[in-house]
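REVIEWER CHECKLIST
Item 1: Sequence provided? yes
Item 2: Single chain? yes
Item 3: Sequence as submitted:
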Amino acid sequence: MDSQGNRIPDGKGGWKNHREDSTDWNDRENAEKWRAAWAAYANRALESAGRPERIDHRSYKRQGVDKIPSIHMGPAASQMERRGIATEKGNINRKIAADNKLLKEIKARITRLYNWSKEQAEAAPVQGKESIIAQLWQARMDTAAPLYSFGQTPKTPRMDLKRKNFNLLLLKIIFYNY
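Item 4: Structure as written out by the authors:
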């Protein structure tokens, strides 16, 4: 509006306007506060109902959870999935669930290997870093047939990959945690 209170034409057949945001609904900080309040309210209701589940409004990344988040399906895709019709978003979420399961299994194996190597290190007298690596390699040789004999090339790329993965695990676990 001009100084006399009249609307000002914009030259394109409309009127000039200026909007002032009179609410703070679009403020990210408020969205965070509202999500935290909702999580607290829902957790109180779950606790009073005697349920063990809890809600956390933060992302997996902010929670420190190493898990791939699923994508939002929406009501139409959810309804189609319930009827047994596969959707693209449903397929993606199934793939993410399978990847998360694999990630969990890999972490469990690494934890077991780390705990085993720690027990072995505590049981044997410490003679240096080379001794624990030698013990790990010897345990590997005792529990399984060698992948290939010395001086030969691997029969398949998969055998070579297994050897490289084992060596990588040894290096990461021993040298970073010792």
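Item 5: Key structural point noted by reviewer: Residues 146-152 have pLDDT under 50 and may be disordered.
Item 6: Recommendation: ____
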